[in-house]
């Protein structure tokens, strides 16, 4: 029989790749999409007419709707990817972030328990749980959590409530602790997309400069398309468990910018330090990247590096795409497209 999967966050970066992945495996995919006065379905427009893809208006703040949909669909697998996922924005809207990212997860888990259905449940967790004050590198499933943003604190609640419902009620519930993962579909307010789009526009003469915050922040960046396979693999195991998903390779924001501009044909030369640091076009001397402290977070997470050896060993998962290759994909997409087309990337 055809498996039924229920997705939240289907119109986001990860949700769109996961929906494609599951459809390719023959699933019936049921997804909730938030009602908005502007179109937000660009990433999934190309699969909206797929006979096995079904969308419903819904939101993680509406428990009655979640309860009704889950009771009607009775999915075998649930993937909770919806979130207010921007770390910097979470400092501006902490209550809303908690309502969606923390209590939204609880609403889903409690609906599963109350309905008496037996789906396998995936909770999208995050490397931001580890925070910046860490004694050991890299971070694994055993590393102590130290969230340093309202986003990370909300995700910490969803991590532990998922674990609690697994232990208290016997639910097959997993946390995927995914380190940073990007793609051509990344939202434009995230630093990686901001960089690749600016590199493309500057190369085409349509923008003069890129303004960034903390250039020293170091991240373990992977390709979102690779990471959704790990989500699915977690729900195919005999026993539920939690897994770190990462590449194990670390680069700074400065490194990412240097790669992106290089793909666009601009060699950057860095000079200065701190808020005075700049990058100039080595060929023309024009200033292309500057720093503005307004983009600093109130509390920074300086270094994140994942140890995905458990996922390698148990899930058989490996990242397929290096960061230089990922940056190339993103910049080449931005050089060709001013807007967004979900069928690419």
UniProtKB/TrEMBL annotation:
UniProtKB keywords: Lyase, NADP
Signal peptide as annotated in the record: none
Cofactor: NADP(+)
Pfam families, A to Z: GDP_Man_Dehyd
Residue span, NAD(P)-binding domain: 7-330
Highest rank taxon of the organism: Bacteria
Molecular function (Gene Ontology), one example: GDP-mannose 4,6-dehydratase activity
Transmembrane region(s): none
Entry-linked InterPro entries: GDP_Man_deHydtase (IPR006368), NAD(P)-bd_dom (IPR016040), NAD(P)-bd_dom_sf (IPR036291)
Catalytic function, reaction form: GDP-alpha-D-mannose = GDP-4-dehydro-alpha-D-rhamnose + H2O
EC number per UniProt: 4.2.1.47
Class of enzymatic activity (EC top level): lyase
HAMAP family: GDP_Man_dehydratase (MF_00955)
Family per similarity comment: Belongs to the NAD(P)-dependent epimerase/dehydratase family. GDP-mannose 4,6-dehydratase subfamily.
Role played: Catalyzes the conversion of GDP-D-mannose to GDP-4-dehydro-6-deoxy-D-mannose.
Protein name: GDP-mannose 4,6-dehydratase
Native organism taxonomy: Bacteria, Pseudomonadati, Pseudomonadota, Alphaproteobacteria, Hyphomicrobiales
Gene name of this polypeptide: gmd
């Amino acid at each position: 029989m055809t498996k039924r999967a229920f997705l939240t966050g289907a119109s986001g970066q990860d949700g769109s790749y996961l929906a494609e992945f599951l459809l390719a495996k023959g699933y019936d995919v049921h997804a909730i999409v938030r009602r908005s006065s502007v179109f937000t379905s660009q990433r999934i427009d190309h699969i909206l007419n797929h006979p096995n893809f079904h969308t419903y208006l819904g939101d993680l703040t509406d428990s009655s709707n979640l309860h009704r949909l889950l009771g009607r669909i009775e999915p075998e697998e649930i993937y909770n990817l919806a979130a207010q996922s921007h770390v910097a924005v979470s400092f501006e809207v902490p209550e809303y972030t908690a309502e969606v990212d923390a209590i939204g997860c609880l609403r889903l888990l409690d609906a599963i328990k109350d309905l008496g259905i037996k789906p396998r449940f995936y909770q999208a967790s995050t490397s931001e749980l580890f925070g910046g004050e860490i004694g050991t590198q890299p971070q694994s499933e055993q590393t102590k959590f130290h969230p340093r943003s309202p986003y990370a604190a909300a995700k910490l609640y969803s991590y532990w409530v998922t674990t609690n419902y697994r232990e208290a009620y016997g639910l097959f519930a997993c946390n995927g602790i995914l380190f940073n993962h990007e793609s051509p579909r990344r939202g434009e307010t995230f630093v990686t997309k901001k960089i690749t789009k600016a590199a493309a526009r500057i190369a085409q003469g349509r923008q003069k400069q890129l303004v960034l915050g903390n250039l020293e922040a170091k991240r373990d960046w992977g390709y979102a398309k690779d990471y959704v396979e790990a989500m699915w693999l977690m729900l195919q195991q005999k026993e539920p468990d939690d897994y770190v998903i990462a590449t194990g390779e670390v680069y700074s924001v400065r490194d990412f910018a240097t790669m992106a501009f290089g793909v666009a044909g601009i060699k950057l030369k860095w000079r200065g330090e701190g808020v005075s640091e700049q990058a100039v076009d080595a060929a023309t001397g024009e200033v292309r990247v500057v720093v503005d402290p307004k983009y600093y977070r109130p509390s920074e997470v300086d270094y994140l590096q994942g140890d995905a050896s458990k996922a390698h060993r148990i899930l058989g998962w490996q990242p397929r795409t290096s960061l230089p290759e990922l940056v190339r994909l993103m910049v080449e997409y931005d050089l060709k497209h001013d807007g967004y087309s979900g069928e690419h990337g």
